[in-house]
Amino acid sequence: MRYQNTKTLHKLERNWKKVVYPMAIAASLTTSFTWADTTIRMLHLEADPKVVSVWEQVAHDYEKANPGQTIKLEYLENEAFKQKLPTLLQSEQRPDIFYSWGGGNFQTRVDAGLLKDVSKEMEDVKSKFSDVSFNAFNYQGKQYGLPYMVSQVGFWYNKSLFQQAGVDADQVVTWDDFLGAIKKLQAAGITPITTAGGDKWPVQFYWALLTMRQAGQQGIQDAIDKKEPAFAGEDFIKAGEELKRLVDLKPFQSGHLAASFGDSSGNFGDGKSAMQLMGDWNYLFQAQQSISGKGVGDDNLGWMNFPVLKDGKGKATDTLGGIAGWVLTSEASPEAVQWLKYFSNIEMQKHLASINMIIPVVKGADVAIENPFKKRIAQNIANSSWHQLFYDQAFGANVGSVVNDVSAGILGGALSPQEAAEQVQEAWEFE
């Protein structure tokens, strides 16, 4: 996941009497290994109590079955995680295992010698995962970790606000349809969209999806391969122009340029905006961030895939999202490798899927998905002709930050679509 709302590094104390945890998971995961006394540190940006309670119980069961093994689960808020991780990885405080997205940032860390090659150790579990997800943590033929979940970005929308404005989500197919819906919502006195310009990465989704819809898979690949004019080409300028068309309608909530992801999700959860472009993880987060703590309920919540561009080369089935997982640092012990394999069991994946936390990557775990939104999104990804990783992860930290910056620049009127494309290209030339 790309979020959370905790503000400092913290350790959650275990209170086993309050943990509600299926005994089947504990039974299926408990296997005894004989290792030397060791502490295994695992760092994540997840802090949802429902997920943490599951992890803590699994760690407890593992420690009980393996005397001398101590699992130390640690958490950082999303932005702090991204900012502090590079320093942590160079220090004596580096974790043994940490949360990672596939793509350029992951590959950069491999190249820097920060991650551990666990190809041999993971060979016996490879067949349990979907090929695409497992290979997200394979680089130049070597495996450095295991996948955890997949995700998709799309529009969450409020059905009652759509109905008030006379907007039919099923009829929003093209970008022009979408802009028309924006005008209807505004005419009804409804704020069409909430976003988080302060954090920038949520805004990047617009530029990313518009470039995907305009350039298509081959166009994006050509740009990645530095085939001139690459990211400075007409397709990328055109995508920026389409984003500017949206911005010129002034569809966002007041203060959107300074808003955080939590602010934006709370705004949507409180029914103050009709839409939010965000990943499937926002299903729970918008409720958590709302004043009521309940957010937009299932009966009033809708999901739309990002619309297509009339003359674009991309397909409606092309999806943007992530493949997230866990990687091991270079000095991680054999015990840490075994713990990660244990932690990635199908029963764990099934349980987290059943409580609407993840779209699982272990084969067969998807049968546990009960939520209709998660089912639909899982099917979207399964049917996708091309699943593009988040640009700010796929392109590496340097280029990714530029993509975030130029997206916010177009949103705030500080950059033209051409300037934005040129800046991304300039950053890519130096990769």
What does this structure look like?
Mean pLDDT is 91; it is low at 1-23. This protein folds into two domains: 16-151 and 321-383, D-Maltodextrin-Binding Protein, domain 2, CATH 3.40.190.10; 153-320 and 388-429, Periplasmic binding protein-like II (D-Maltodextrin-Binding Protein, domain 2, 3-Layer(aba) Sandwich). It is an alpha/beta fold and 431 residues long. The longest helix is centred in the middle third of the chain and has 24 residues, at 201-224. The radius of gyration is 22 Å and the shape is globular. The protein is 45% helix and 14% strand. A hairpin with a 2-residue loop joins strand 4 and strand 5 (142-143).
CATH superfamily of the largest domain: Periplasmic binding protein-like II
CATH architecture annotation name of the largest domain: 3-Layer(aba) Sandwich
* Molecular shape: globular
Low-pLDDT runs of 5+ residues are: 1-23
Number of domain units: 2
Question: What is the structural class?
Answer: alpha/beta
Strand content: 5-15%
Number of helices: 18
Helix content: 40-55%
CATH class membership of the largest domain: Alpha Beta
| SS elements, strand count | 10
Q: What is the residue-mean pLDDT, rounded to a whole number? A: 91
- What is the end-to-end distance? 26 Å
SSE topology string: HEHEHEHHHEEEHHHHHEHEEHHHEHHH
Subcellular location: Periplasm
Protein name: Extracellular solute-binding protein
Main location: periplasm
Pfam families: SBP_bac_1
